[in-house]
Specification:
This protein has about 575 residues and is of the alpha+beta class. Helix content is about 20%, strand content about 35%. The chain is built from 9 helices and 30 strands. Helix 8 crosses helix 9. The longest helix has 30 residues.
Amino acid sequence: MAQAAARSESMGGMESFAALLEESLGTSDSLEGTVVKGRIITIENDNVLIDVGLKSEGRVALKEFGGPGGNAELKPGDTVEVYLERMEDKNGEAVLSREKAKREEAWTLLEKSFNDQSRVTGVIFGRVKGGFTVDLSGAVAFLPGSQVDIRPVRDISPLLGTPQPFQILKMDRSRGNIVVSRRAVLEESRAEARSELVANLKEGQVLQGVVKNITDYGAFVDLGGVDGLLHVTDIAWRRINHPSEALQIGQTVTVQVIRFNPETQRISLGMKQLEADPWEGVEAKYPVGAKFKGRVTNITDYGAFVELEPGIEGLVHVSEMSWTKKNVHPGKIVSTSQEVEVMVLDVDPQKRRISLGLKQCLDNPWESFVDKFPAGTELEGEVKNITEFGLFVGLPGDIDGMVHMSDIDWNKSGEEAIAEFKKGDQVKVKVLDVDVEKERISLGIKQLSSDPFESAAAGLKKGDVVTCTVTAITDGGIEVAVADGFQGFIRKSDLSRERSEQRPDRFAVGEKVDAKVTQVDRGGRRISLSIKAKEVEEEKQAMQEFGSSDSGASLGDILGAALRRAQSKEQSDE
């Protein structure tokens, strides 16, 4: 009986131990997948040995206790919370994780913040495709690149490793996904700052802003929640063709509020207004007639702009660029950034305009020409151009003179004379006149020789009777050659004393006739003659010599006597 009792007591003890063991194991099994407290036994190399109250300890990598900035300071005896993944591994040690423990703790807090729509603090510690990774006190979240800032950020380095406020956009605990936004936090702060800024904004106020965007006509500057337009003409006093010449996106600038419309909330900004106006006292600095050196900043079809100093530009009109190059694009005379000497021609401070001259700083070629080659000088030059009214001949000083069609030949018509020349011919000319103001030089070719008309007409005077040769017959009269071939004209009414004989067709080309000179036109280089006047003169002489009709002699008798006498004289001369 005693033995039976002992056996029974022994069996009961074993059942009790089995029950306790089962209870212990069951409890341990229920701990898997939970966060438990443990005590650090020792730190070996890069591992931490932790006792969590199980039959075996577990090891956790030391780096898991560190934050984004480095390892945590631990020592044996410290109590830590770890995540129990399994009771034991193949080595019989408990499988523990500090990172999962921190993640579990973080998830609980993050879910509360997500539900409350409150901000959380995190640290950006890595870059992944499409964005960045953020440590939210142990939980890793994804920060899309578009959610980093309100404006695109080229360099995120200053944000790495620094605690930043974030807003949780989405989270899925089962998948372990969290998406956060730093931009949402900034926009919320921006809206608050915007309302405060607009309420206190006034014209003339000086603010600091960041260049947000650049266009062809200006730049948009973020003043801290509200944007203002900085027009290209208000960036600087000097000429700026494009805002990118002076600004770049992300640049911090100091600006002044020029205009502000509270209704539309449109803000016009200026930078140059914070600097002294270079146009003040411009008339004293740049008096008319003075010469200065400047830099070509812009070239247009109508001229070139020259910068005399930053903010002060003048226009050299195309007509003031060269003495000789006419109808030439300014870009063929000067180039951008070229340094040139100019003369101030006019200053208008109200319109902020200065007229400059480039050619005025060079010798006037017409003045130089008239000094070297006064009227009467003979030169040789190349025919540069031929027009319907004359020839243009190249002269020293890179200038041209014109030979009018009437000054080419003494005898030929202008059209005939021009036809004998072609471009490139070398011709001798005489300077007739130089008009410096109108920049004109009159030349002559026929003036190189004396006028043959003058020498031929020198022996002729009004009233002389000359022998002519008929050269042409017209309805209005006949053309005749007089004195070495110079042309004369006898009108129809002057062909005869008798009206019935006043017919041009009774004459033939080549026929010789005697006529009286009635006019010598030296300007027109023409002689007017009359057969009728000669006959009338002969009649008067006959009347005086052989009597008058009053004495009883008829006109026929008188003329007959005069004619017989003339014939007798001719026979005696022969």
